[in-house]
Every structure is written in structure tokens, then in C-alpha cells.
Design a protein that fits this description.
Shape: globular
Number of helices: 0
Largest sheet: 4 strands, antiparallel
Structural class: mainly beta
Order of helices and strands: EEEEEEEEEE
Length: about 120
């Protein structure tokens, strides 16, 4: 997350990610109108291992609220290549089979009603 003043002196924030083999991608996500805005809870990061992976990957994430979650694998072109509904539970770890994936870089996303947790994944053969 990057905060900067725009041409009108307003605080503007940007979010994005970096692709090691390409440019930094940034997009404008909003203006900060005051310092009294509500800041969301810190999201527990995903733990993805092994990384790089070849045939299976372990994904550890937090679901303390026991809510409905979706696991999404996104390729570097932004396409969702697999999306799965996850069972509710707390401090969950799952193992995913990667045999149908091509070698390359992916983003793993855990999607809930409160937001998205992300982590990079490299698949090598």
C-alpha cells in the first residue's frame, strides 16, 4: 500500500503487486478524506509451503470466524484457473494437488466476506 499526495493536495492511496519478471502494477483505489477513517483489522497472512512446489502445496490460513471461504488460484494474466469452496473451521491447513497446473507463477487467494488474503506460488516441473 502506497500513500501519496495528489495534485490537489489530497491523500491518495494505491495498492498493487510486483511480478518479478515484469513491471510493478499499481491502481488507484481511493482518496483519504480524513485521518479518522476506520482501518480494517490486520489479516493473518497465508503460509504457503513448499514454495516453489511441484506436485502438492500446503496452504495454512486463519478462519477464526468459521465463515464460508473460497480458495482461488490466479495466473499472471489475472485468470482464475481453479476456485474451490472451503469448509469452515479455525486455523485451517489444506493440501492442494498441483498436477493439473503448468509451471509458472500464481497468486493464491483466500476469499471471505471480509476480504482477501493472498500469497505468491511458483510451480516448477
Amino acid at each position: 500500500l502506497l500513500y501519496a499526495d495528489n495534485a490537489n493536495g489530497q491523500k491518495q492511496y494505491f495498492s498493487g503487486y510486483i511480478n518479478i519478471s515484469g513491471p510493478i502494477v499499481r491502481m488507484r483505489t481511493g482518496l483519504i478524506s480524513s485521518t479518522n477513517e476506520v482501518v480494517g483489522e490486520e489479516v493473518t497472512p497465508l503460509h504457503v509451503f513448499p514454495n516453489p512446489a511441484s506436485d502438492r502445496v500446503n496452504i495454512e490460513f486463519d478462519n477464526a470466524q468459521g465463515e464460508e471461504l473460497y480458495l482461488d488460484f490466479v495466473d499472471m494474466q489475472g485468470r482464475s484457473v481453479r476456485q474451490t469452496k472451503l469448509n469452515s473451521g479455525q486455523n485451517t491447513m489444506i493440501q492442494e494437488d498441483l498436477n493439473t497446473f503448468q509451471s509458472g507463477q500464481y497468486i493464491i487467494r483466500i476469499i471471505s466476506k471480509d476480504g482477501v488474503q493472498t500469497a505468491p506460488l511458483i510451480i516448477t516441473r
